[in-house]
Amino acid sequence: MTDKQIIFTKEVTLPAIGQGTWYMGENASYRRAEVSALRAGVEHGLTLIDTAEMYADGGAEEVVGEALNGIRDRVFLVSKVYPWNAGGRKAIAACEGSLRRLRTDCLDLYLLHWSGSFSFEETVEAMETLIAQGKIRRWGVSNLDVDEMQALWQVAGGNQCATNQVLYHLASRGIEYDLLPWCQQHQLPVMAYSPLAQAGRLRSGLLNHPVVNDIARLHSATAAQILLAWVISHQGVMAIPKAASVEHVQQNAAALSITLSAQELAALDKAYPAPKGKTALDMV
Questions:
Q1: Catalytic residue among 30, 55, 110, 168
Q2: Residue 1: what pLDDT?
Q3: Alpha-carbon dihedral of residues 137, 160, 238, 21, nearest 10 degrees?
Q4: Does the annotation count 30 as an active-site position?
Q5: For labelling, which of 5, 88, 96, 223 has a CA lying 20 to 30 Å from the CA of 216?
């Protein structure tokens, strides 16, 4: 895997920054701006769009569906299924609902949003059925820690999993202890959600941190761009920030061309050290 690009199932190579859609579709008055931002992202090369049936109860998928009008073939489309829909007929129905809202006949990648209601055997079977039906091209998981990944790998067909999407940013580095090395060892791409931290004090602490801002000045960049460049500096890791404006999307795309030096990475490491031992997987 080269820097700044991520390979899914040895078939598809994508830029290491995509587009997230969490909180989209919640307010009709923002819809036009959200659609414009997603389309601008595709124009700037951020061709992976990630959504979920959970986001705004399907509202985010509807926004994405509108944004995909005329450009579906240029986009690597990802959605996620609730755990309680991730098996048997429920999985088929949930996927069909997502496809309807997204105005497409096939997902490039379908993820188990988090583990829970169905066994991995049942979920894998449902995913393989959806592939056989032509409704999805590949499947993966989200919010699974290393023990769950190992359990999934023991299930027949479990190693066909194409990615694990987890929370990861400079101030939440728990995956580096064991989950990220495991995924790298198995050549399994990691999709980092909330790469700029979710909200509130933690996000503001990151964006206002003097070390982050000093490095940003050296690159004539924003603090957010440095945080994205840090996430994708890790082998096999893609960032999926949400951007609800065209300007934001342009800034996210520009972060692909920022390469942090060894000294800069060391300074960020000192400001936000990696954990020395196992920590619970962060989720929001």
A1: 55
A2: 32
A3: 50
A4: no
A5: 5
